[in-house]
Design a protein that fits this description.
The protein is mostly helical and 238 residues long. The chain is built from five helices and four strands; from the N terminus they run ααααββαββ. It has helices spanning 3-82, 87-122, 125-169, 173-186, 208-216, and strands at residues 191-195, 198-199, 220-221, 228-231. The chain has a four-stranded mixed beta sheet with strand order 2-1-4-3, sandwiched between helices. α1 packs antiparallel against α3 (125-169). The longest helix is centred in the first third of the chain and has 80 residues, at 3-82.
């Protein structure tokens, strides 16, 4: 492998590392936002649950109050039944008592069902609390890791940018101008290793003559995608 090929490979590796570090920094805010959205979703689910639980309790309390009203009404009717002045009046009070007792039985069943539902839902309260807590913890952990990684990535970027400047100085003037235009528009995709006789970006096969020129001649560009090419004779050692 020639010195020029070595330099191009090193240059490409630096560009790839820079792109990866910058990508991590750029993705961070959107990843944080996604986790913040999860926290808001879990909080909304908790609010909805607590509201549902509140209405279940209110419904149970309302039915309990209604039951007391019916019980009082039956008690009053029994008093009137004992003091009825005629058989007709007695029968009317008796029929009302029977109807209210049936209504009271239905209410008692509804109250038991309401209390069962309330108890079942109440047992899920810790589940929603844990969901919110977990989402907040994941957000905090990611923010902490991202802040720590950002410091490291910025340090790596600064070092790589210095390495890049040194490597770019070795490029011949004319290819250097084309290289800069490509890097500005395509980043690390502006370069490609030749693997198995093909361009590593577009996978178009090169002729044997082209491979010889890449190894021994000036900087070569892929005739199909325009990438700067270099021979990577030992890709597994990267």
């Amino acid at each position: 492998m020639t010195s020029a090929t070595n330099s191009l490979k090193e240059l490409h590796q630096v560009l790839l590392q820079l792109e990866d570090c910058r990508s991590q920094l750029e993705r961070g805010p959107s990843q944080i936002k996604a986790r913040e959205n999860i926290v808001r979703k879990r909080e909304a689910e908790q609010v909805e649950f607590l509201d549902r639980l509140k209405h279940l309790r209110m419904s149970a309390d309302s039915k309990s109050l209604e039951l007391k009203t019916v019980e009082k009404k039956i008690e009053d009717l029994k008093g009137k039944l004992n003091s009825a002045s005629s058989n007709r009046e007695f029968d009317i009070f008796k029929a009302q008592i029977k109807a209210d007792e049936m209504a009271m039985s239905v209410l008692e069943d509804e109250i038991l069902e309401a209390f069962d539902q309330t108890e079942t839902e109440s047992n899920r309260k810790s589940e929603f609390e844990e969901n919110v807590k977990s989402a907040k913890q994941q957000l905090a952990d990611f923010k902490s890791k991202f802040d720590s990684d950002s410091i490291k990535n910025n340090e790596i970027i600064a070092r790589l940018e210095e390495e890049l400047k040194v490597l770019e100085k070795d490029l011949p003037k004319e290819p250097a101008e084309q290289y800069r235009r490509l890097v500005n528009s395509r980043g690390a995709k502006s370069m490609a290793a030749v693997l198995n006789g093909a361009c590593g970006n577009c996978y178009v096969n090169l002729t044997p003559q082209q491979r010889i020129q890449i190894k021994s001649g000036p900087v070569q560009f892929c005739s199909n995608c325009g990438s700067i090419l270099y021979i990577d004779e030992n890709p597994e050692a990267d």
